Structure formats: C-alpha cells, structure tokens
C-alpha cells in the first residue's frame, strides 16, 4: 500500500471511530460495543483500500468483507426490529469479498463457490425463519445449484463446463427435499421454481452442445 492509501485509510478509520464515540456519548451509554464496531469497520476499510490500490493484494477483499460483515451484524444486534435478518445480511456482506476476488482474474474462478455458498446459507436462514427447516434445506441446495450455474457461465471458456453436473445434481436433491415438505401448497410453491431452474439448465446445456 502507498503512503497516501495508508493515510486515507487511517483517516476513514478515525472518522468512523469518532462518530461512533459521539453517538455512544450522546446516548448516555457506557456500552463499548460501538467502539468495537468502529474498530471492525475501520479494519475492514484498511483491507479494502489495500485491495483497491494494490493488484497483488487481491486476497485483502476476503478479510475486508468478513470484518465488514461482523461490524454490520453487530450494528443490527443493537436494533431488535431487524434481528431476524442479521444472519442473511452477515452472509451476504461476507460473500462480497469472494465475489470481488473472482472479478479480479479468470483464474480465480474458485472464489465463486464460497461466494455463492455464503449467499445460499443466508437464504437458507431466511427460509427457515419463514417456512421451516425443510424449506431451509431446499433454499440451501437451490442456492448451491445456482452457484455452480454461475460458475459454468462465468468467463473462462470450457474450463468450468464441469460445473453443470453438480448444479443439476444439487437441483435434483432440492426437488427431492421439496417433495417431502409438509403441506401441498408449500410443496408446489417451492417445486415450480426448482423445475424452472432445471429446465433452464437443460436448455443451456443443449445450446452449448449444439455449438460443437
């Protein structure tokens, strides 16, 4: 990192810590959680600046996103009205680091897998809260299947064509879990988008084969 980047990062971190300190003071609370949140977000900013200013520091996006996710999750814990969404927000923000890594170079296609799985875990948590455990399983496997679809369609030529096979297998597993859901209405509601996903995958695979 250049000296300018270091100074900019330090300034951002200090500003965040100062604002949070004022909020903590004005709300007449001795709770130091806001200070820790400021430290987490400030540390995240350091890694993101390194990622943005140094091509060799592509890895910095991962800890930067994780620290940001931890900080935002801690902020959400301060409000009881949005506690149900904090896990989804955590996983979604944490996945941004891997998406950023995947975007830096085609050879880092592997980062798509943890990125997609983190989003899938967040979706599964939401599904569990809204529909129950089995719906969470469906959401997890559908998300995993879509992750491999994204991997197969990502720039990189034929190297990732193998990703179609796990995506189809995971979609089938999701369909099997959906068929075991209690209640016909829930089962139908979950099955039809899965069938659409499988149908779309089949069309894409057929189109790719026709290009040979």
TrEMBL record:
Q: Which UniProt keywords apply?
A: Membrane, Transmembrane, Transmembrane helix
User: Where are its TM segments located?
Assistant: 6-27, 34-51, 57-76, 88-105, 135-155, 162-180, 186-208
ATP-binding as a keyword?
no
Q: Please, which domain of life does this record's source organism belong to?
A: Bacteria
Q: Which residues form the signal peptide?
A: none
Q: What is this protein called?
A: DUF2157 domain-containing protein
